[in-house]
Design goal:
The chain is built from ten helices and no strands. The protein is an all-alpha fold. The radius of gyration is 21 Å and the shape is globular. It has one domain.
Length: 267
């Protein structure tokens, strides 16, 4: 790799200065918000939503820094990309704190959590999830296919799929899903299609991680949990055939995991 001149380094430092300033402002805003928040307050969960959106924005600023590094110095800024990854984790965690990180939680257990964010429309929930999904995709692309973080993205995208599913109020969604006259019909259909794919992809990704990398039982168990969560979703929207297919696949995967354990293949 060619040596980077002092002039190019200086130009890069000057170019990213506004981004760094904005990042510092946003992180200070986060501290201020957290210091003023108290669990049980009426707006506690809604403030967590705002913090999630702020973390997505900060992640985008870090990725912009990397893009400028590539453009100006023709080299990735791995520090900026790692900071973006941390911000995406924080965005996911803020949502997990609202609706839990449990993969195959019964929808009825989510009702009390949804009651605390009733003013959060499905349109806004869908927008937040799409923005977070875009940030994750951009970060994965920025790291590249041969990144050491390849398997880390299985966890990131799995946790993202979980909160995306848990954030939707299925009691309302299943009504709107079957009612073309509902104002939320189109958004609900798109949202449910999206999380259906996300759950399926996460199941496959965790199985690949088990098969190709870790041989850890907890990875295969997560793969099965995503299949069971997918089955619940299919049942909720009345898709009996794919629900049964997801169930059968979960049984096959569990049998495979148990057989590997007997052979001493899995950890």
């Amino acid at each position: 790799m060619a040596k980077i001149s002092d002039e190019r380094r200086l130009h890069f430092t000057e170019t990213i200065a506004p981004y760094k300033e904005k990042i510092n402002q946003m992180l200070e805003k986060e501290k201020t918000m957290l210091n003023g928040m108290h669990e049980g307050d009426m707006d506690f969960e809604n403030k967590k939503v705002l913090l999630c959106e702020d973390m997505i924005y900060i992640a985008s600023l870090y990725m912009a820094e990397n893009a400028l590094s590539v453009k100006v110095m023709e080299v990735k800024n791995n520090d900026a990309l790692n900071d973006a990854r941390k911000m995406i984790y924080k965005a996911i965690i803020y949502l997990e704190e609202i609706v839990t990180p449990t993969i195959d939680i019964p929808y009825s257990d989510l009702v009390p959590k949804h009651e605390r964010i009733m003013n959060l429309t499905i349109a806004r929930r869908y927008t937040i999830i799409r923005k977070l999904g875009l940030a994750i995709n951009l970060l994965r692309d920025a790291f590249g296919d041969n990144s050491k973080w390849r398997w880390t993205f299985v966890e990131i995208e799995g946790r993202f799929a979980t909160v995306a599913k848990n954030l939707i109020d299925m009691k309302s969604a299943t009504k709107d899903y079957f009612d073309p006259s509902s104002l939320d019909y189109e958004t609900t259909v798109f949202y449910i299609r999206m999380i259906t794919k996300m759950l399926s992809d996460s199941a496959d990704a965790y199985r690949d991680k088990y098969e190709l990398s870790t041989r850890r039982v907890d990875d295969m168990r997560n793969a099965i949990r995503y299949l069971l969560a997918l089955r619940k979703l299919y049942i909720a929207i009345g898709n009996a055939e794919p629900a049964e297919e997801a169930k059968k696949k979960a049984v096959v995967w569990k049998d495979r995991m148990d057989a590997d354990a007997k052979k001493g293949i899995s950890n």
